[in-house]
Each structure stands twice: as C-alpha cells, then as structure tokens.
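Async update (no meeting this week)

Hi team, since we skipped the sync, here's where things stand on the single-chain job. The sequence we agreed to prioritize is pasted below, unchanged from the tracker. I ran it this morning and attached the output directly underneath so nobody has to dig for it. Comments welcome in thread, and please keep replies under the output.
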Amino acid sequence: MADQNNSNEDQTDELKAAIARLSSKFGQAAVLKAVEGTKRRKMGRPSEQDWKELHQSMLADARLYLRGGDPLAEKSNYAIAKELSERKPGHSQDSTVRRLLRKLSGKRLKYVRINALLIAAAEHPLSVYLNLLSELRNLDPQSTIWQRYEAATEEVLAAYKDVFGVAPPVDASLDTVMTALSEYSVPQGLNLQIWPDRHPTPAADGAGGDESLEE
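Output:
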C-alpha cells in the first residue's frame, strides 16, 4: 500500500510539473480550456452520418412522391443501402447494409414526406403543402411540430387575406404567399420564419439534432 501511495504521489508531482511546463509555454487559460475540451469529448464509436449521405436519395424519393409515385416500389431500402455501402471503402459492407436498413425501414417514409413538404413550399400549390402536413401529422401523431406548422401556415394565410382582401391564388405556393406579404407589409407580430432552415436534413444519427425537423 505504501509503495502504491508513493507511486501515486510521484505521478501527481510529474503531472503538476507537466502542467507547469505547458502553462508557461501556452498560458494557464489555454491549458484549462484544452482540459475542459478533453472532458467534454464523447467516448465510444463515432456516429455514422448516414442520413447526410442519403439526402440525395431522399430528395429523389420526395420528387417522385410529389409526382404520385411510390418511392418504395421504385427503389427498395436494400438497393439504397447496398449502393451507399459500396461507396464506403474500408467499411464492412454487410454491417453497413444492416445499419442502413434499420434506419431506412424506420424513417424513410417520414423523411420522404419532410423533403416533399420543403419542395412543395417552394414549388407546389398550397393544397399540396397542406396535404403533406396532414400526412406527417398522421404519420407522427406523438409529435406536435406539424400542428405548429399548420397553425403558422393558417396565420400566414389569414394575414394575406387581411392585407390583400382576398385569399391567395389557388396555384400559389407558400413561398409565393410569404414573399408577397414580406414585400407589401408584414402585420405586426406575424412571424414569416415558418421554416427555421429551408434545407433541414434528418436528425444526426443517434443525436436527434443536425438541423432537423424532429423534436
């Protein structure tokens, strides 16, 4: 026990000397900042950013869906997973395919609709956009985000009618309506920033963030 205590004391003295040397070279504040950064660093296997690499596939799915097509019939989850796994040299293709299949089977349809919603906001009539909002609300009933977007959209449409005296044209997109309001006069208290990010991507794998529309 005594030998162990002596060893610990020697290590502590050595560590103090090393910290003193680093502090004299880089400054105490820099050393403390580096130590804090090390403490905050996440341990374990780095997160795979699969959804970022799947984004173009999800956009293609979304445009097909807006044309009335069936993305799952057009291209299977396995086909997408296999293609992406082949673009990851050095990775086990079998394990990559299995990981991607789990993600695609659980969230592909939701993210197809989210991307379709973003495209519809800019390129399609309001009726298409509102139908997609309704689909997302039914697909994800535990979330309140889609109800909030519905409420925000209704507020924008009501403001348009107040400002211009008529409802928006039936073929107008949400972006067209919002642009008209912003160029004319924004009613006090109206928030036109319905979308915090015009191009959100699915939540960072396992993190729930990554600039996404998920709660």
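Quick observations from my side:
The two ends are 53 Å apart (CA to CA).
Residues 93-123 form the longest helix (31 residues).
Reply here if anything looks off.
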